[in-house]
From TrEMBL:
Native source species: Hallella mizrahii
Protein name per its UniProtKB record: Carbamoyl phosphate synthase small chain
Record-linked HAMAP family: CPSase_S_chain
List of residues binding L-glutamine: S46, G223, G225, M253, Q256, N294, G296, Y297
PANTHER family the record matches: CARBAMOYL-PHOSPHATE SYNTHASE SMALL CHAIN, MULTIFUNCTIONAL TRYPTOPHAN BIOSYNTHESIS PROTEIN-RELATED
């Protein structure tokens, strides 16, 4: 294991060792407090451009499942076709692993996909720094090659363009109601949850104009980066809402794009929500749900138009966790109802959407 140094943009340094691919890398340093689910998190396109810190101390002990694909083209155990996180930062990497479904170690997988991984970092202290300062840019430098300084491109970059599909993909053709899914970096389990409810899914690129297509409902998927870089998608959503009352549902980035289409403002959270234990309340009720989340931006609920209202709010910081139109079947969640990995308390969001398809 080579010695490496994580250098934050404020000059703070953390020293550790490389257990993944030996290559310097830079990006936005974020933290995830989930206790498990690193294969799903690493392959979540929403982590594109980010150095993912895991606060749970022991990582790698259950290895990595096989990268197999189902007949419908969806990966069986992962959330996309490859690792999208720029790097993973852990406290204690376990090279030895034990799990009925594991076929390789986390380290060997990272090396095969050319993704750096560093261990021996005090991830709790790193998280304290990020919570105090807010997420910041950082770079991983190899101590034996200190002049190789990677440069990060994050602010203003349209990561959705980088991870979205480039052509239309069909799933479950001819099954029943047809749903257009706008791919901003969709997780595989979102598609699977729709397919399992008997609908046909037409997956389109993030900036594709679907308004002249024949379909029964619109689904806005999750994705990485700043929603303000996705104005083309917002304009198409507005165009669709002006033409039809067809049901619309969004998740994560989809919530922010729907919020922008409604006229609301978006702001960046200090350090985001990335965990499996975020408590969310349904507005107007006493119902509280435990949710899985991965986002760094939020809708400003106070700026919603008069025809819109908040559907969910975060019980930790009061930030918006979902919106809905007061009369039309348009609603969304900032959290992940499909939660792979994570709790499944809010899976009913898919049921509500499918039921609304006429």
């Amino acid at each position: 294991m080579k010695n490496v140094t994580l250098v934050l943009s404020d000059g703070t340094k953390f020293h550790g060792k490389s257990f993944g691919y030996d290559q310097p890398v830079a990006g936005e340093v974020v933290f995830n407090t989930a206790m498990m689910g690193y294969p799903e998190s690493l392959t979540d396109p929403s982590y594109a451009g980010q150095l993912m810190t895991l606060t749970f101390p022991l990582v790698g002990n259950y290895g990595v499942p096989p990268f197999t694909f189902e007949k419908n083209g969806l990966p069986t155990f992962m959330e996309s076709d490859k690792i999208y996180a720029s790097a993973i930062i852990v406290s204690d990497y376990s090279e030895a692993y034990s799990h009925w479904n594991a076929v390789e170690s986390l380290g060997s997988w990272l090396k095969r996909e050319h993704v750096p991984g560093i261990t021996g970092i005090d991830t709790r202290q790193l998280t304290k720094v990020l919570r105090e300062h807010g997420v910041m840019m950082g770079k991983i430098i190899f101590d034996d090659d200190p002049d190789n300084q990677p440069k990060a491109e994050y602010e203003g970059v349209n990561f959705v363009e980088k991870v979205s599909c480039k052509e239309i993909i069909h799933y479950n053709e001819g099954a029943g109601k047809k749903v257009v899914l706008v791919d901003c970096g969709v997780k595989a389990n979102i598609i699977r949850c729709l397919i399992n409810r008997g609908v046909e899914v037409v997956r389109v690129p993030w900036n594709y104009d679907y308004t002249d297509m024949e379909f029964d409902g619109l689904f806005l998927a999750n994705g990485p980066g700043d929603p303000d870089t996705c104005q083309a998608a917002v304009d198409i959503i507005r165009k669709q809402m002006s033409r039809s009352r067809k049901p619309i549902c969004g998740i994560c980035m989809g919530n922010q794009l729907l919020g922008k289409a409604s006229g609301a403002n978006i702001y960046k959270l200090k350090y985001g929500h990335r965990s499996h234990n975020q408590p969310v309340q349904m507005v107007g009720t006493t119902h509280c749900y435990i949710t899985s989340q991965n986002h760094g931006y939020a809708v400003d609920g106070k700026t919603l138009g008069s025809d819109w209202e908040e559907l969910f709010v975060n019980m930790n910081d009061g930030s918006n966790e979902g919106i809905r139109h007061k009369t039309n079947p348009w609603f969304s969640s900032q959290f992940h109802p499909e939660a792979c990995a994570g709790p499944l308390d809010t899976m009913f969001m898919f049921d509500k959407f499918v039921e609304s398809l006429k």
